Each structure stands twice: as C-alpha cells, then as structure tokens.
Amino acid sequence: MSKKTLTVIASFVAAVCVLFRTITLIYATEADTGFFVFRLMPLGVGLTAVCLILPVVMLLFCLSAKSDGSVALTKLTGIMSIAVGLSVIAYCFIGTYEYVIVWQRTLEMISGLICGVWFVLMGLKAFKKFNLPEILSVAPTVHWVFKLIVAFSNFSSNALVAEHVFTLSSISLTCLFMLMYGKSITGFAGVKTKKFIYPVAICGGVLNLTSALSRLAVTLMGKSEVIHGDSAIDLVGIAVGVFMLFVLSEKNNEM
What we know:
- By secondary structure, the chain is mainly α.
- 68% of the residues lie in helices and 0% in strands.
- It has 8 helices and no strands.
- It is globular and about 55 Å long.
- Helix 2 (41-62) packs antiparallel against helix 7, helix 3 (75-94) runs antiparallel to helix 8 and helix 7 (191-220) crosses helix 8.
C-alpha cells in the first residue's frame, strides 16, 4: 500500500477518533473530576480504547508501506513547517501551567523559541535554498523532551484521567518523531530510522489531532469544564498533527 493511500486512511481514522473522543468528553466525562460518569463508564472506556487502538493499528499498517524513509521539503510541507514553528513560538508566550516548577517552564520556553525558529527557517528553505547549522536539528527533540517533563509535572498533582493519557502519548510519539525527523533531514538517518519514521509519524499525527481537536471541539461547544490540566486550544498539537500526517507523503525535493 502506498504512503499517500495510507495517509488518506490515517486522515479518516483521525476524524473518527476526534469524533469519538469528543463524544466521550461531552457525554461520558464528569466535569468536576475528569473521570468517566459511572453509569456511562462502558461507553467512555470503549470509545477511549478505540481512540487509542486505531492509531496503533495504523502504525502496524504503515510498517508495510512502500517508503524509503525520505523526508519531503516541498512548498506544501514548507508552509506546514512554518505553521508549526509559529505555533510553537506563540505557545512559548501564551501557554500556562498550574503545577510546574519555574526552571521547567523556562527551559521549555527557551527550547521552544529555538525549535520554532528552526521550523520556520526549514519552511523557508522550501522557497529559497540556504544552509542551516545541522546542530539546530536537535532543537525540536529537546523541546518536546521538556514538554514531556512539563506535562508530567503538571499532571502529577491530579489523578491520571483519559485526557492525560492522550496528551502524554502524543507528546512521547512526537518526541520520537522529532528525533527521527532531525536525523533524516540532515542525512544521518540509519536503517531503523528510515523504517520506522513513517509509522511513528502517522500514529503520532493521529494521536495529536485526536487530543487537540477534541479539546477544541468541546471548547467551541461551551463544554471546556470537562478539560482537566490541558490547554483548551492547542494550536501546536493541531499544527504538528497535520505536519506529521503529511510531511512524509509528499514527493521529496532536493533539500
């Protein structure tokens, strides 16, 4: 099965997961605690399980994709890269956390600014060729490592609810993808990186969109009280989710 076909299927799976996750938040989640409503627990557990299993199924399907692990830098992915960079930079100034140590937030902000600038410059390379220091390719990985630390700290003061599982799993997969992406775009990708970068990108993209778009949907419906410990509007999650879904499905250009 080709990468483009799998990407279309993954987009459909993401839409289904967003719908199921939104239904779970609205109808099966207690606003006060974030846990499932007791009488609707089978619905909540069932839909949550589907939303977690489907991305894994896509990962397994993508292992059979006809992919050489090459990373595309087309005008489309260039625009996506710029969008990711701008959203990361913006979040450095508007993101807030209730239970985070100052040094954790500071390092997340500094790494986020460097990461955002790198993504913007990589996007601009799709329109005008220029060289970037290869060491900067580690910036996204470092930033998502700090995002994971901050997320763990922020959630540690609350009970682990389904919402946190989606956030932590999407950040973890994004961190792994950023490591592979940085190695690939600088020409240091090994055999395992080339084999697994596309499956990880698709699985992580679906999880990011499931987590971010469902929170956006319930917020637009006036039900933001069911969100616990996360941002109601996660533009980074949306931008990164779209980027991960499509960056490896585009025909590769010379970088």
